[in-house]
Amino acid sequence: xxxxxxxxxxxxxxxxxxxxxxxxxxxxxxxxxxxxxxxxxxxxxxxxxxxxxxxxxxxxxxxxxxxxxxxxxxxxxxxxxxxxxxxxxxxxxxxxxxxxxxxxxxxxxxxxxxxxxxxxxxxxxxxxxxxxxxxxxxxxxxxxxxxxxxxxxxxxxxxxxxxxxxxxxxxxxxxxxxxxxxxxxxxxxxxxxxxxxxxxxxxxxxxxxxxxxxxxxxxxxxxxxxxxxxxxxxxxxxxxxxxxxxxxxxxxxxxxxx
Amino acid sequence: xxxxxxxxxxxxxxxxxxxxxxxxxxxxxxxxxxxxxxxxxxxxxxxxxxxxxxxxxxxxxxxxxxxxxxxxxxxxxxxxxxxxxxxxxxxxxxxxxxxxxxxxxxxxxxxxxxxxxxxxxxxxxxxxxxxxxxxxxxxxxxxxxxxxxxxxxxxxxxxxxxxxxxxxxxxxxxxxxxxxxxxxxxxxxxxxxxxxxxxxxxxxxxxxxxxxxxxxxxxxxxxxxxxxxxxxxxxxxxxxxxxxxxxxxxxxxx
Lengths: 258, 254
Hints:
The complex is a heterodimer. By secondary structure, chain A is an all-alpha fold. Chain A has one domain (3-257). Helices cover 79% and strands 0% of the residues of chain A. In chain A, helix 2 packs antiparallel against helix 4 and helix 4 runs antiparallel to helix 9 (178-186). The longest helix of chain A has 30 residues, at 103-132. The radius of gyration of chain B is 19 Å and the shape is elongated.
């Protein structure tokens, strides 16, 4: 099968995935509304935390801006994973196997949908954040990098969602993984910088949790400017998650098809 | 009147049996536990913010919110269960058989208290293991009383919604308002340290009075107790009417 025809298959399934998401306004609204709502509540409720000695900025709003971007990627991954699981549950995946279409195109199409949703969320959250008063220290260039990192994170989480969907073939199983993702986000440096986390056990967990580095990469662009170390770690961990997750999803797919 | 209590006992006994025979019966406690771990573990330094004057410390500060979240979500889960009973046809048969249908609401509420006791105990044991001090002595019973009232109010809300919509798709309609009420309160810092829109939202939120009084009980410094119990009583009266309205809508729907 030629590369061009494979890309055509991916494009067709990506279009299907995107149209299906767009036809569910509840999914779009919750993917955009809930992360911003949580961000707004957290940023306002924890505003006083910026008075802790050593806090890196005097605005908790700026500090917390990474939260909706990371959380949105999580929502996107669960939604896409659930859609893929539904395709398996409903028999669409089996019917696809009877056509010349390659099953891996289904994975590619699903991930293309995740990227599209991640891009939409990144742009919308950036616009709303700026309207709410978030100050991006790294300027316009930094905003583009924030969107790029958000899309990469969405792709990585999307890969994990795909592994769950392919391995279980159950919408319910994918949905029930949501609390685990949520726990992973909160057990990171999402609410306070690691050096200000008082409990040793929590600081250790936050340090070994890759999500801390994704958060700190985005956060550095907002409150510090251009911090090469934070960006290398952020992009490095995001790329590693993408490689491991998509590799794992492709391997799971091969097993399921076999 | 006998029929009222008979129906209530029967519904409660079935619900409690269903609850304990479900292998995932403690699952509703996982979210409050997780929030407790994330907030009490990760945000301890917030207790150092100038003006943060809660005597019992940050772990106890977060425990009270986690406990009230656990019991309120217990009420929400009872709502999901009622919706499930309507969807699978059990509630319809129950309404035909019950000599006094108001007993159905009481029965679900009693079962919800059992559920809340289990999840509340789990959160409390976890908090004690992680080093939460109890400095309030017998004032702890004030905290328990407020938790019970919060559970009753949340259950009545969930029951009203579930009986009106009679489908498990009512889940988000039950869960989201309860979640919002819980978060639009002084979750991370005392009310006096809030500012901006969240301060206005917390001031208007009836749950704030209950949360602040419950925290006062745990610290052995009861504050705004009358206001908290009055708010709880008003909520329960209003939400009882709401649940009865839901029941009547279900009766009309047949």
